[in-house]
């Protein structure tokens, strides 16, 4: 995924700094006025810095820039890479003309395994960096006078079935942290008369419970400012094409056209006037041709096969008119195509978000807690997490959290043993609590992150019991989640209701607890063998928390029948009641 560096004219150096844990990119300004430095911890979020590595560092870079660039011009660069799934390694030698060689290096002489080859096309001023046991290629695309786009790819070695070591490239893994929604399609057949077309601007609504519906956006196709509209300017598209020996396939993504052509004379991928020849074994491989497209506001990166051919091109997506993807077979027949599209979040904060970030940076931000592995750290006004990556979650005050979506929203049930789905209700980057949580107990500490975390939990708790997500006949009860979206929630679940009750629900909302627990003795979604016991536990805890005996009295007949049923299930030999798939012990039947 590209990063805009409007002032960049040429790359000077690209390296990983072990001490700071950052990747650094040094470059000449396009107007010749000097040099700059951009830094990143995750190869995705880049920040242009005036000075890195001490005061005057940028000036030092500017002073040595031209001689540094001239010294490296035309000279190969050597990097040792481990072969995938092997303890062996080889050396990669990169030339300025985009060519590379793989071979051995004895400290003085490089011996190539074969002739120079080319893996990528469309970039210039490329540099390699090695750090964290990774080899990353950085390059620039776009016109010098119009600003440059930084593109990155990770280089790796793998051994083929024939024993030949080959170079391949893939997007940096941290891009996965930007995924916020996912769509999937399988197409049985494509021909000139039967193209495939799907909008990538849509909305969801409750369907037949437990399902949801994916619907077109109400209003004009370019009406993308609606709060319920799901779309993204940045896309990660993965496509597999299974076709005849002779075909011409056109892919249109946000108005950008990519053609894939295969016949006796040529095998290539082309877009925006750039053509990427494909090796025949890659184009005709069993299992189909794999394509991965990364699209942002100004660039597209295309990885073919398993990264054995790569193309970078500058683009201008037609966001206002063409928020769709279309597959059109112009010649031949595509027997099958599988398509997976991920919407990605932006890495650039808005002006309003930038102001919130600055408000979250007091002179001293106290460390409240750091995990033993140092994978996450909680401060008074922010939380840093290595798993979720950049940026941190910023908390300027107890009623504000600035944090982008860090889950992948799905719109169909997964085809796995759990048959589950991830849903996202609030897709914005900024959270404020609803005023209604004032009816709940509050928490005040000296730390905005602790207060905001509690108030966020209270906000979610309130909404799960609000009319906003209540199913018909379940008003005033706790829905198990906001799963289907406003208009209908996930309904009252037997097991979940008791877990909410015993985890402070009986104290926070005794009226909602009573209605919900009473409902579970008669109805509710029972999704586990522990459903028989759960209302007994929840109602007893309700009595302990409130002193209200009337709920036990009202449900006594039902509770006695549940106790009798549990007695029948009791295993005398083991002294246990079978309860596989019970949340209390996470047990599952033996295979």
UniProtKB/TrEMBL annotation:
GO terms for biological process: carbohydrate metabolic process. This is Glycosyl hydrolase family 32. The lineage of its organism: Bacteria, Bacillati, Bacillota, Bacilli, Bacillales.
């Amino acid at each position: 995924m590209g990063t805009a560096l409007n002032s960049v004219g040429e790359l000077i150096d690209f390296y990983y700094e072990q001490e700071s844990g950052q990747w650094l990119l040094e470059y000449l300004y396009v107007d010749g006025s000097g040099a700059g430095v951009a830094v990143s911890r995750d190869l995705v979020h880049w920040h242009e810095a005036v000075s890195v590595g001490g005061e005057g560092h940028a000036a030092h870079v500017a002073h040595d820039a031209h001689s540094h660039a001239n010294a490296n011009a035309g000279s190969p660069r050597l990097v040792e890479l481990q072969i995938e799934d092997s303890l062996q390694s080889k050396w990669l030698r990169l030339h300025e003309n985009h060519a590379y060689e793989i071979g051995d290096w004895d400290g003085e002489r490089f011996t190539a395994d074969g002739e120079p080859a080319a893996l990528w096309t469309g970039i210039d001023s490329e540099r390699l960096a090695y750090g964290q046991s990774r080899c990353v290629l950085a390059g620039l695309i776009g016109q010098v006078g119009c600003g440059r786009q930084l593109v990155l790819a990770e280089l790796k070695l793998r051994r083929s079935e024939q024993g030949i070591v080959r170079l391949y490239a893939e997007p940096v893994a941290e891009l996965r942290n930007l995924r916020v929604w996912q769509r999937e399609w399988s197409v049985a057949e494509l021909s000139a008369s039967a193209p495939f077309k799907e909008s990538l601007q849509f909305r969801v609504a409750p369907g037949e419970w437990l399902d949801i519906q994916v619907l077109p956006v109400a209003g004009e196709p370019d009406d993308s400012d609606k709060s319920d509209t799901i779309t993204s300017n940045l896309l990660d598209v993965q496509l597999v094409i299974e076709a005849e020996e002779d075909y011409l396939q056109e892919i249109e993504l946000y108005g950008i056209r990519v053609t894939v052509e295969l016949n006796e004379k040529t095998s290539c991928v082309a877009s925006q006037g750039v053509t990427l020849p494909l090796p025949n074994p890659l184009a005709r491989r069993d299992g189909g041709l794999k394509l991965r497209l990364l699209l942002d506001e100004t660039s597209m990166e295309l990885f073919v096969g398993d990264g054995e051919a790569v193309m970078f091109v500058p683009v201008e997506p037609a966001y206002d008119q063409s928020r769709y993807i279309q597959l059109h077979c112009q010649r031949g027949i595509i027997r099958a195509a599988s398509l997976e599209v991920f919407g990605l979040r932006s890495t650039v904060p808005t002006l309003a978000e930038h102001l919130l970030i600055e408000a979250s940076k007091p002179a001293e931000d106290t460390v409240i807690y750091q995990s033993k592995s140092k994978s996450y750290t909680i401060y008074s006004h922010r939380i840093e997490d290595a798993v979720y990556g950049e940026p941190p979650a910023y908390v300027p005050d107890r009623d504000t959290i600035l944090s982008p979506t860090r889950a992948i929203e799905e719109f169909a049930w997964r085809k796995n043993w759990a048959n589950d789905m991830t849903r996202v209700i609030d897709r914005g980057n900024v959270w404020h609590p609803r005023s209604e949580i004032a009816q709940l107990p509050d928490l005040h500490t000296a730390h905005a992150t602790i207060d905001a975390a509690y108030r966020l939990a209270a906000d979610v708790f309130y909404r799960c019991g609000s009319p906003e997500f209540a199913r018909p006949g379940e008003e005033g009860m706790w829905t198990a989640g906001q799963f289907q979206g406003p208009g209908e929630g996930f309904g009252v679940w037997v097991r979940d209701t008791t877990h909410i009750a015993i985890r402070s629900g009986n104290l926070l909302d005794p009226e909602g607890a009573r209605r919900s627990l009473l409902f579970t003795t008669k109805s509710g979604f029972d999704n586990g063998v522990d459903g028989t016991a759960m209302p007994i536990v929840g109602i007893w805890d309700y009595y302990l928390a409130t002193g209200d005996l009337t709920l036990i009295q009202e449900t006594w007949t039902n509770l006695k029948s549940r106790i009798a049923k549990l007695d029948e299930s009791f295993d005398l030999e083991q002294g246990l009641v079978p309860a596989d798939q019970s949340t209390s012990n996470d047990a599952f039947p033996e295979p």
